[in-house]
Each structure stands twice: as structure tokens, then as C-alpha cells.
């Protein structure tokens, strides 16, 4: 079994890293888009981050343009949009694909660990959320329509609060 902390990802500037620096944290990993009807979920994500980051929560934002081109622009433009409109401060990574041959190895792994009851492994839309415990186990997958505040109890449980 692959260790989630060893999967390569890219920072916004294209630097290859792994999730190694996030060991022993509770992770909420989300594929996002700036031009989607669900984009206002950034506000709820930031509220969760503000409340629980000091307790060990990290929200990892992976913009994705695969769904009706709803994440246009460069990585810098996406970051500026999120900071200006939603005051986000959680880590945002390089734009990725979540489905198909070009899918990010991280999302391939996440989908293998938690499939969707209706879609199987495919990601349905922007703002699909994966919750990872402090041991690196993918413990839940939430649909795009699941508001961030509806995940709060699950996060608190994993944080031991």
C-alpha cells in the first residue's frame, strides 16, 4: 500500500514535494474551482481552517479545471482570486487533473481509498472533499454539495476535540 505522505505533488511554483510535512495532521483535501456555483464554499473552508488549524487541521486546495473549465487562469491568478474574495490562508497547490490519464497521483490514491457510492472512483465535480486522519488513512469522502460546516463534527472527532 502506498503511503499518502510519499505521493509527489507540486506547489504553485512547480516545485515537486510530498505531503511529508503534513504527517500527524488531519487533512481535508479538496479539488476546487474559482468559477463554480460551489466556489462560495471557500468561505466555509476558511472558517474551518481558522477554527481548527491550531489543533492540527490542514486544508489542502488543489484547483482543477476539468469540470466545464471552471478554474481558468494561472495558478497565481487563482491564488489571488481566493485571497482577495475569500481571504483564504490555507495551502493551495498547482492546478491538477483529478480524473483520466493525467490525474494527479494524489487523487488517484484518494479515489482508490474512498470511492463514491454512485460514481465509483471518479470525481463527480469541483469541491469533492477527502478527510485524512493523523495516521494518513483516508477516512471519508464528501460530495461536492456537502457544505464544509457539515464536515466539522468529523474533523473535531479526528482532532480529538
From TrEMBL:
Q: Is Oxidoreductase given among the entry's keywords?
A: yes
What keywords appear on the UniProt entry? Oxidoreductase, Peroxidase
InterPro entries per the record? Glutathione_peroxidase, GPX_AS, GPX_CS, Thioredoxin-like_sf, Thioredoxin_domain
Q: Which residues belong to any copy of the Thioredoxin domain?
A: 1-160
Show the CDD domains listed in the entry: GSH_Peroxidase
A molecular function (GO) term: glutathione peroxidase activity
Q: Which family does it belong to?
A: Belongs to the glutathione peroxidase family.
Q: What is this protein called?
A: Glutathione peroxidase
Amino acid at each position: 500500500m502506498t503511503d499518502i505522505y510519499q505521493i509527489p505533488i507540486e506547489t504553485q511554483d512547480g516545485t515537486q514535494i510530498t505531503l511529508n510535512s503534513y504527517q500527524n495532521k488531519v487533512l481535508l483535501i479538496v479539488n476546487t474551482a474559482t468559477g463554480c456555483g460551489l466556489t462560495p464554499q471557500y468561505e466555509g473552508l476558511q472558517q474551518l481552517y481558522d477554527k481548527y488549524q491550531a489543533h492540527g487541521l490542514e486544508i489542502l486546495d488543489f484547483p482543477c479545471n476539468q469540470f466545464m473549465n471552471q478554474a481558468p487562469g494561472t495558478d497565481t491568478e487563482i491564488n489571488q482570486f481566493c485571497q482577495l474574495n475569500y481571504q483564504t490562508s490555507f495551502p493551495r497547490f498547482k492546478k491538477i487533473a483529478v480524473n483520466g490519464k493525467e490525474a494527479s497521483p494524489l487523487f488517484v490514491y484518494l479515489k482508490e481509498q474512498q470511492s463514491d457510492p454512485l460514481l465509483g472512483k471518479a470525481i463527480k465535480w469541483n469541491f469533492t472533499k477527502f478527510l485524512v486522519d493523523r495516521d494518513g488513512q483516508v477516512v471519508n469522502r464528501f460530495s461536492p454539495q456537502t457544505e464544509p460546516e457539515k464536515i466539522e463534527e468529523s474533523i473535531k472527532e479526528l482532532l480529538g476535540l
